[in-house]
Amino acid sequence: MSLLEARSISIAFGGIRALDSVGFAVDPGEVLAIIGPNGAGKTTLFNIVTGLYRAQAGEVRLEGREVTGLPPHALAARGLARTFQNLQIFFRMSALENVMVGRHLKERRRLWAELLGLPSVLRENRESRERARELLAFVGLAERAGEAAAALPYGALKRLEIARALACEPKVLMLDEPAAGCNPVETEEIDRLILAIARKGVAVVLVEHDMKLVMRISDRVLVLEQGRVLAEGTPREVRSDPRVIEAYLGRHGLETAHAA
Amino acid sequence: MASGTRTKLLVLGSLLLVSLLVPLLFPSPFHLRVAALVWINAVAALGLALLMGLAGQVSLGHAGFLGIGAYATALGPKHLGLDPLASMGLGLVAAGLLAFLVGRPILRLKGHYLAVATLGLGILVHLVLVSEVPITGGPDGIQVPRLELLGWRVAGPATWYGITGIVLLLAAWLALNLEDSSTGRALRALHDSEVAASVVGVDVARHKLVVFVIAAVYAALAGGLFALFNRFVTPDVAGFLRSIELVTMVVIGGMGSILGAVVGAALLTVLPQALTLFHEYEHAVLGLLIILFMVFLRQGIVPGIAGLLTRRRAA
User: Fold this and answer.
1) How many domains does chain B have?
2) Which among B2, B177, B201 has CB closest to A168?
3) CB count in 10 Å sphere of residue A242
4) Sheet holding A220-225, edge to edge
5) A203 and A243 both lie in a single domain
6) Does A235 lie in the same domain as A152?
């Protein structure tokens, strides 16, 4: 039994099959990369597994229990956290507060106590603040804790999202293009971060376009094309798979050859 | 806006200071009456500021809850033989319950459905107050019995100024506490991104419902206070214009700022009194002032001035 398992997931948007019986599984401490050309269905798969979309067929299991179709907040309570391809930051809050929101499920949230500002609530605020500071330090944003999230550069926001997701203390972390739009130095930092997270026993699933990053850090790679699984295996196996080469280079190479 | 203990003390301290200074500077009964009205309106605006400023939801019929609080306080003694204060408590429960029933199905949806639904709700409440003449007294309004506490007849502008001031301070204290809590952070988070809030475990629909109910209870509390203080209510208290006035108080003072809601309430309560010297142009001047405030202090008065001050200090 894997930690997170998606089986024969299918979904169609207006007659177009975006995903056709796709599945994957990850174990604790493992890094699984999902790659594929644009429109292959990577983000759609992410959105189904994290409860934002509802699959028309298939099931998702977390620690062996079926969680298909549960809302995102219920999945978060079961240990599933994610980041977004196009950032979803709480821009009106500080960097520190963004991460504190990630602590939501760890806080007791008793409305009466909160309204009265009881000492237990203040203590909990302090704990959340300390934990959020640690996480900001872990992703390299310790000095920017007090700054408004809106004032942070793109690369920092990418890491802020990771810190916020980690604040949920997830068992599975799903990263949707964690290095998109980052320069080589920032990409390397994210690289190190992901490996450090996996070393702590968190299962990491990521969608990524940066092939160098994927090949460097993944234990296994799942290749999607037009909503189907094209190949799956270690980075080495996938890299030498002729179907993958064709999907990425071959056809394009052939077409340009013909055009010339 | 982030709270923290220091901000809490700063806001409450400045409110306390102002409420102590007002009777020294303006001791006349007329001025104290206006000031008591300011505190009452500020309570309603505070609740709406939590809904709009923290959670980013708009209620366009909030005066409906004001009306429920006011009329419960007026009608309880007449029809149920209840004490005015107990009637007011009943009004708070009724407003909270109604907000729960209306909000529960609507707040599951994204977008401005709450604004439209509350607009309808406000109009409905107003309509019932106007047309149920045998119960509510209809458009002519209804008398409210004097409040008596253990034989003490609560009367006089100075007394009411004190009572409303204390209630406002308590309401502001609760609101500040809420801001600086897990629920408060979740509300501000879902204001910016509902999807991001939900994937870290925030039950978005439930949180929106909670703050809507709180806002409704705040409005009903203001309505009940107004009824006891004014000793006469008409359906105007629940009218559409009152709802718009409440929203304007929050926007002009500065959304998401507790102090802003009080400043907005003060402005929209005092200005019409001050502008009576413009006679028939009163409303035109009021409208013009609101436009000017929005042009020059777009974030609202309190956040706008705070921003100016910090920029000056930095320069």
Assistant:
1) 1
2) B201
3) 9
4) A80-82, A172-176, A203-207, A31-35, A220-225, A228-233
5) yes
6) no
Contact A105 B173 (CB under 8 A): no
Q: Which amino acid is at A55?
A: A
Shortest alpha-carbon distance between residue B247 and chain A (Å): 21
Tell me which chain A residues have a C-beta less than 8 angstroms from the C-beta of B189. Answer: 90, 93, 98, 101
- Tell me the CATH number at A28: 3.40.50.300
What are the Cα distances from residue B162, in Å, to B19, B85, B93, B154, B219?
9, 17, 25, 11, 19
Mutation target for A interface from B7, B100, B200, B212: give the one with most A CBs within 10 A: B200
The domain in which residue A138 lies consists of 90-168
Distance from the A237 Cα atom to the nearest Cα atom in chain B, whole angstroms: 34
Q: How far away is chain A from the Cα of B67, in angstroms, using its nearest Cα?
A: 25
Count: domains in chain A? 2
A101 and A73 co-located in one domain: no
Q: Is the predicted pLDDT of residue A98 greater than 90, yes or no?
A: yes
Q: Do B200 and A116 touch (CB under 8 A)?
A: no
Interface ipTM: 0.89
In chain B (315 residues long), the average pLDDT of successive 10-residue segments reads 73 94 91 95 97 92 96 93 93 97 89 88 94 90 88 86 96 95 96 95 96 98 96 94 92 87 93 81 81 83 82 65
**CB contact, 8 Å: A67 with chain B?**
no
Which runs of consecutive H residues, i.e. helices, occur in chain A? 42-49, 72-77, 95-101, 111-116, 119-138, 154-167, 184-199, 211-217, 235-239, 242-245, 251-259
Phi, psi of A207 (to 5 degrees): -105, 130
In the predicted model, is pLDDT for residue A260 greater than 50? no
pTM above 0.90, yes or no: yes
Of A88, A103, A116, the CB nearest to B196: A88
Same domain for A124 and A242, yes or no, is no
The residue of chain B nearest to residue A72, with distances taken between CA atoms, is B199
Last residue of a domain, one of A142, A168, A194: A168
Question: Considering A168, A202, A224, which residue would you say is the last residue of a domain?
Answer: A168
